[in-house]
Amino acid sequence: MRTPALVSASILITGALAAACSGGSSSGSGTPPATTPPATTSNQAAAQAAITTAWQTFFNSKTPHAVAERYLEGGANLGPAIAAAARIQRKIHLTENAKVTKVVLTSSTTATVTYNLVGTPLQGATGQAVYQNGKWLVSKNTFCGLVELGDPGKKIPGCN
Question: Does residue 22 form part of some domain?
Answer without folding.
Answer: yes
